[in-house]
Specification:
6-stranded parallel sheet; binds nicotinamide-adenine-dinucleotide; 14% strand; Rossmann fold; 8-stranded mixed sheet; 14 strands; 15 helices; alpha/beta
């Protein structure tokens, strides 16, 4: 019976998840090595803009204790570890060093017990497939001097939530994936997470290794759908335009395909998707296998950057306004943001760049990354005022009314097709129906081209 947990890592995912457990009446020791973060949490501050997080933290308050070290974990029944697993281009395999450190801190606390009792350890960070068996389980057994699956339990419970939707996402997941290699660990992990997910949420029980693989594979599949939608835009751009959104809606009617992530827009980005594709390719290579599908997904993603850049530079702009710096609407996170890559490309060509994002954090990150190469604005109107071309980088609903805000002799490059109404300089990438109509007319005049669909 789990009454009290320790939770390691109070980041963008960990803090909401720890608070959900506390709100479910579990006493929760919430630990982060970042002392400043812990001080802010103790002072009642909400460190990240995430919908619903302020109310959740207030509701969790009676049962949650914040700490910057793990000593108090010795009295808890279970621990959840949700710390970073960094990777980079040179090392696409996620590092487990922060998980290992959290394990060391936890085990030092558990060793202080006078009498041993079963403890469940849940790894929730995204790990490189095979990590728990090769690194984490042996480390825990060595540190505790006890056997996994008998004296303590290990479960791998990865997260399928999206920033900007974390609080709802943890409570209403499509399914709960629990990786464990013994029945007791599975039963305890399932009972623990049942406390916070909606009744009826399906639970899929896999081995730890299979759950590790499933987590990464899920994101690679999502990227495959995004790249497919973006490739349709690349194709339509060459064909002279197509009604991409209606095509996506039609395909979505087939349940074998489904509509999610089929919409053409920016390249995929953010904290997880690009690195998960890289890790998947690296995993295949580690067993002497090419991953041509995942590699093609990356190629199409790069081609989408090239396509957007080509449209942007078509009018030889001296100044471009980039709207939407975060990698998607509703979050201020700019890690892996397509906007940053496009700003970098523009700056390399000595094009002046004005940027706008509704989140002050996102604007600050852009300023930290690009300094004087960009000018940050706090309103759309101010941002587009001096620009020859405007780029819509994410599908924030605030950009729908852009046609009325941009002078008619300027260009609006809209990969998402989200700008409403008409504007003489509007380029809805791949969706330009005027071009499509004229192409169709010319095909009718030239029978030999009819085969081109
Ligand atoms: N961000 C996402 O959208 C997302 C989605 C699914 C999965 N994930 C995975 O979740 C994990 C965490 O991601 P995040 O975005 O919450 O990270 P984050 O960087 O926002 O937060 C991680 C926190 O862990 C703390 N930390 C590091 N080492 C620690 C230790 N030894 N003990 C206690 N605290 C420690 C850090 O100080 C930081 O506050 C990663 O593996 C990531 O791949 C993230």
């Amino acid at each position: 019976m789990i009454d009290c947990i320790s939770f390691f890592g109070l980041g963008k995912l960990g803090l909401p998840l720890a608070a959900l457990f506390a709100r479910s009446e579990l006493r929760t020791l919430a630990i982060d090595i970042d002392r400043e973060l812990v001080a802010r949490l103790r002072a009642g501050q909400v460190p990240y803009p995430e919908p619903g997080l302020d109310d959740l933290l207030a509701e969790a308050e009676p049962r949650i204790t914040y700490a910057s070290e793990a000593r108090g974990a010795f009295g808890t029944d279970a621990s959840i570890i949700l710390v970073p697993t960094p990777s980079d281009a040179g090392h696409p395999e996620f590092s487990s060093r922060h998980i290992e450190q959290a394990c060391r801190d936890l085990c030092a606390a558990l060793k202080a017990r006078t009498e041993w009792r079963y403890h469940l350890i849940v790894i929730s960070s995204t790990v490189f497939p095979g990590t728990v068996a090769t690194r984490i389980a042996p480390l825990l057994e060595q540190l505790l001097g006890r056997r996994a699956g008998r004296d303590f339990g290990i479960a791998y419970v990865p997260d399928f939530v999206a920033l900007g939707d974390v609080v709802r996402g943890f409570q209403e997941p499509q399914f709960l994936l629990i990786g464990s290699d013994d029945e007791e660990s599975h039963a305890q992990a399932a009972a623990l997470f049942r406390r916070i997910v909606a009744p009826g949420t399906p639970i899929q029980h896999l081995s730890i290794r299979d759950a590790e693989l499933a987590k990464v594979a899920a994101n690679v599949f999502l990227c495959t759908k995004i790249s497919f939608g973006n490739f349709l835009a690349q194709l339509a751009d060459r064909l002279g335009g197509a009604d991409l959104d209606s095509i996506a809606s039609a395909l979505a009617l087939d349940p074998r395909i489904g509509g999610g992530f089929l919409r053409a827009g920016s390249p995929y980005g953010g904290t997880c998707l690009p690195r998960d594709v890289d890790a998947f390719v690296a995993l295949a290579r580690s067993v002497d296998l090419d991953a041509p599908l995942a590699s093609a997904v990356r190629d199409v993603n790069k081609a989408q950057y090239d396509l957007i850049e080509r449209h942007l530079l078509a009018g030889n702009p001296r100044c471009v306004a980039v709207l939407g710096l975060s990698f998607k609407p509703g979050t201020s996170v700019t890690i892996g943001s397509p906007a940053f890559e496009l700003v970098r490309r523009l700056a390399q060509r000595s094009v002046r760049v004005a940027v706008y994002d509704p989140a002050a954090d996102a604007r600050e990150s852009a300023h930290a990354a690009f300094g004087d190469a960009i000018t940050c604005h706090e309103s759309i109107t101010a941002c587009v005022a001096a620009a020859d071309a405007v780029l819509v980088c994410n599908s924030d609903p605030a950009f729908r009314g852009l046609a009325a805000k941009v002078a008619p002799d300027r260009r609006i490059i809209d990969p998402w097709g989200c700008v409403l109404g008409t504007h003489p300089g509007l380029v809805r990438i791949g969706r330009d129906q005027a071009l499509a109509a004229s192409l169709l007319a010319s095909r009718r005049r030239k029978p030999s081209l009819r085969a081109v669909r």
